[in-house]
Amino acid sequence: MRPRILVTTPIPEPGPSLLSGAADVTVLEEAPTYAELAERCASGEYDVVLTQLRDRIDAELLAKATVRGVSNFAVGYNNIDIAAATERGIMVGNTPGVLTDATADIAMLLILGTGRRVIEADRMVREGRFHGWEPELMLGADVSGRTLGLAGFGRIARATARRALGFGMEVLFAPRPPHDRAVTDSELGEFAGKVRKVEWDELVAASDYLSLHVPLNEDTHHLVDADVLGRMKESAILINTARGPVVDEAALVAALRDGRIAGAGLDVFEDEPLLAPGLADLPNTVLLPHIGSATVSVRAEMSRLSALNAIAMGAGRIPDHPVNP
Ligand code: DGY
User: Fold this and answer.
1) pLDDT band at 187 (very low <50, low <70, confident <90, very high)
2) Contact, 267 vs 291, CB < 8 A?
3) Among 243, 260, 299, 321, which one carries the catalytic annotation?
4) d(C-alpha 164, C-alpha 158), whole Å
5) pTM tops 0.80, yes or no
6) Measuring from atom 1 of ligand 1, which residue has the nearest CA?
7) Has 272 been annotated as catalytic?
8) Ligand 1 atom with the shortest distance to the CA of 95
9) Residues 154-179: pLDDT tens digits?
10) Active site residue 290
11) Residue ranges of domains in the chain, CATH in brackets
């Protein structure tokens, strides 16, 4: 019997073709509410659900779910209660590897764009406020020679390090706090002798640009809070391409407003798509709508991986990219 797969949002090719070749597919044209999703997952009508980050698959939903697999169209899976899924024997798959470079590009873009005030400058030109070259027009922060601190040293952090080294930055990292296993010197590979491992507190204090590359979980929720922001350099810039709730966004707005740090480049927000009050009014920010993985080829790869994961789980097999044991 062909597996029955529920897709909560239309996805780009090749996912739809792969799915329809192997399964009976239902695609929801509009993102379901939590209640609708819970009802469908408990209806007995689907074997697998292919989800987006905004689909909350929590313990309550999983307790009644009849699906045997959840295929997340993302590498991150903080929208899914993995422990509850595992407990109920529900497999979860994700899309690792394919969005590493694209997301690191956005981290680097935010470093450059925030440091060099690119949005403010663009706006000045468009609004007719550019009256010719001036010695002190739109002065920003250096990138070359400055210190980039990476919170976490996984795939995306490493790809960001590669780019930053190319821009002549000094790169430090602190392994994902607080429970990450230590990264040993022999595991540094191509980065041995080029990046320096430091403690989290040193990373916070020493970074000119502090870039976050940690998953969102209980340990990393509000990892960057008022206290951390207060320990950063006044000239520092915070970069977040990871997950919004890793930063206490209200505290960030206060720190930016009071000049306790110099700027922020954000691709993710605490309560997407909403922004903390005041954030959009601050000139020293570059704000992007969660586009780390948004290239045509990367989204096609995410589509392919999530479809293949769903098909495998529908057939009762472990997906190529399993999240839970
Ligand atoms: C992910 O995959 O986790 C990104 O945040 C969205 O592509």
Assistant:
1) confident
2) yes
3) 243
4) 10
5) yes
6) 74
7) yes
8) 2
9) 999 999 999 999 999 999 999 865 55
10) yes
11) 4-98+297-314 (3.40.50.720), 100-287 (3.40.50.720)
